[in-house]
Specification:
- By secondary structure, this protein is an alpha+beta fold.
- The protein has helices at 69-95, 99-111, 115-128, 133-145, 150-167, 176-189, 193-206, 211-220, 236-249, and strands spanning 8-13, 17-23, 26-34, 41-48, 51-59.
- It contains 9 helices and 5 strands, in the order βββββααααααααα.
- The chain has 2 domains: 3-95, no CATH class; 99-249, Tetratricopeptide repeat domain (Serine Threonine Protein Phosphatase 5, Tetratricopeptide repeat).
- A 5-stranded antiparallel sheet has the order 1-2-3-4-5, covered by helices on one side.
- The protein is 55% helix and 16% strand.
């Protein structure tokens, strides 16, 4: 078994083999049992909340007439039990989407205006990556906008920002625009215009030409003037002064 899969196994032995395994934060129950000499079958099943999600069977009729039948049967059951766990983990890894695949799907859905399905995709993603600040930020925004729960959504977006700060000591400024965009949209859903404008402007400090942030600001009819008016907002001088002003105002 691959240790990188973060697998935790706890076992107990009786007349069957039984384990609880945790793969990427989801716990499954694996059980292998002898179906009896009438069928000469060994059955292994993987359960998730009582539902069978994976199974494997084998025949042991060739062992029945051997003197060491019970020992050979026990050994075969143990090998099949371990093989079932390995096969299931391998299958899960092949089927599991990466974070980037989830993000791509969410972006496609949002561009089509399908916020409800995008939210559902994020719920699935967070089951596998519960501590990812990027997923949490988008999730918080959609909880506010799609499910009309702005207070909860704002809190999730704020927590996502704090998590980003804690988990990415370097280079986090590059991602601030999208985090503040999501937070600002959650504020708007909660009728907190001042907080929304503040969030959008914080995002623009790090990316003055961000189209989504500029669109939100224009819709609100307000935008901070560049520090040096005759230079473009994207000019390094305006960006630097803007960052200084932002830090003073925080």
């Amino acid at each position: 078994m691959d240790p990188k899969s973060k697998i935790k196994i706890t076992s107990r032995y009786s007349s069957e083999f039984s384990d609880n395994i945790t793969v990427d934060g989801v716990t499954y129950h694996v059980q292998t049992e002898d179906m009896g000499t009438k069928t000469c079958k060994i059955s292994s099943r993987v359960y998730l909340k009582g539902e069978i999600v994976f199974s494997k069977k084998s025949d042991y009729s060739h062992l029945v007439k051997l003197k060491e039948f019970k020992d050979r049967l026990a050994g075969l059951m143990e090998r099949q039990h371990k093989s079932t766990i390995d096969s299931f983990i391998s299958e899960r890894k092949e089927k599991q989407k990466s974070k980037s695949e989830y993000f791509d799907e969410v972006q496609r859905l949002l561009k089509r205006g399908n916020g409800k399905t995008a939210l559902s995709v994020l719920v699935d993603a967070l089951e596998k990556f519960p501590s990812d600040p990027f997923l949490l930020s988008y999730y918080g925004c959609l909880v506010a906008v799609v499910e009309n729960r702005p207070k909860e959504g704002i809190k999730i977006c704020e927590d996502a920002l704090a998590l980003l700060d804690n988990t990415m000591p370097f280079g986090k400024e590059f991602f601030y625009p999208v985090f503040y965009l999501n937070l600002g949209r959650a504020y708007l859903k909660g009728n907190k215009k001042r907080e929304a404008v503040n969030a959008f402007n914080k995002g623009l400090k790090h990316d003055p030409e961000n189209h989504d942030l500029l669109w939100e600001i224009r819709k609100l009819g307000t935008r901070r003037k560049p520090a040096v008016p005759f230079l473009k907002r994207s000019n390094p001088i305006n960006k630097y002064i803007g960052m200084l002003i932002g830090k003073v105002s925080e």
